[in-house]
Design a protein that fits this description.
Strand order of the largest sheet: 1-2-3-4-5-6
Number of helices: 4
Number of strands: 6
Order of helices and strands: EEEHEHEHEH
Oligomer: single chain
Low-confidence stretches: none
Length: 136
């Protein structure tokens, strides 16, 4: 839900990062992506989170295709720990992917993150996701 109070921080073929007053938004684009594109996108998410300082990320996965095995490893073993430590990532409101396999790949990553200082909530309604995220 782009608003006049948001600004584009970064975009490439994999997705878009926006800064909102109360959170950072990651929007995955549809279609196949290269690992390097995902790595660049998520690196900018980490920087945007650090700059923003709230630890809150709205993750719009509605159009996302499933993570490849290499992407899953990257997200789990590299990006999430770095986003948490360097970006202060603590709360994620996830707009669920339409693709069931993308939802399953994401659930696998989140399940393996249990015990870390991060809280995720899944939503189908964007307004509910934003309301939850802002309340954290």
């Amino acid at each position: 839900m782009p608003t006049s109070s948001s600004s584009i921080y970064f975009h490439n073929a994999a997705g878009l990062v926006r800064e909102h007053p109360h959170y950072v938004r990651l929007e995955y684009f549809a279609g196949k992506r290269q690992l390097a594109e995902l790595q660049a996108l998520l690196g900018h998410v980490t920087r945007a989170l650090a700059k923003h300082g709230t630890g809150k990320l709205l993750v719009d996965q509605r159009l996302m295709t499933p993570f490849s095995p290499e992407e899953q490893v990257f997200v789990l073993e590299d990006w999430l720990p770095r986003a948490n430590a360097e970006g202060g990532y603590r709360w994620g409101a996830v707009l669920q992917a339409h693709n069931v396999f993308a939802r399953l790949a994401t659930a696998l990553v989140v399940t393996q993150m249990q015990g870390k200082p991060m809280t995720y909530q899944y939503f189908t309604d964007e307004n509910a996701a934003v309301a939850w995220l802002v309340a954290q």
